[in-house]
Specification:
It is found in: Cell inner membrane; Cell membrane. The protein has one domain. The protein has 5 helices and 2 strands; from the N terminus they run H-H-H-H-E-E-H.
């Protein structure tokens, strides 16, 4: 069996697989969470309609959940090439000038990594404050939800997206076979 350089295992391949596994697991968790939200919202609507008694704190929980779900699924979306982008010009440049196309791709992936590392870094103090102060949403005496788990998901999700961007940059930076 004849293996090319791309077929051989490298430390980068191991990191790539690990990040892929984690991003797939987090995306699955986000999908399950979305399904749970759909059930909760429909139950809330049904109870409002049938007995005029909504479930408490559903809007607050949904608002928190949306942020968590998005950051759980971002890395997997990037990995699967499902991020919204306009790359018509980049594709034309890469066809005409492959080396320059690879260089710009590495540059843009590096910028994406830096942006998401900045998001993660900027969220750390927000997470720490929410953790220390016990910040919550909801009504005391009714139902409250702590905010820190969502902040933690933003940090983890943004960091994972940044790592995925770095993997894209590393792949795009390799010379064409």
């Amino acid at each position: 069996m004849n293996h090319t350089t791309a077929d051989r295992w490298t430390p980068l391949t191991g990191v790539d697989r690990a990040i892929g596994l984690v991003s797939a697991l987090l995306a699955s968790l986000g999908a399950i969470w979305t399904l749970g939200l759909m059930v909760l919202i429909n139950l809330d609507v049904l109870l409002r309609w049938t007995i005029s008694a909504p479930l408490p704190a559903v809007p607050e929980f949904v608002a928190l959940s949306i942020t968590g779900i998005v950051f759980l699924q971002l890395a997997n979306a990037l990995r699967a090439d499902r991020f919204i982008k306009s790359d018509a010009l980049a594709v034309l440049i890469a066809r005409r000038f492959p080396r320059f196309g690879r260089l710009t791709s590495v540059l843009f992936n590096g910028i994406g990594a830096a942006l998401f590392f900045c998001i993660a870094w900027a969220t750390v103090p927000i997470f720490e404050k929410a953790w220390r102060q016990g910040t919550f949403v909801g009504a005391i005496g009714d139902i409250t939800f702590p905010v820190w788990p969502i902040n933690l998901l933003v940090i983890v999700g943004a960091s994972l997206v940044a790592l995925e961007y770095l993997l894209h940059a590393a792949r795009d930076g390799r010379p064409a076979p």
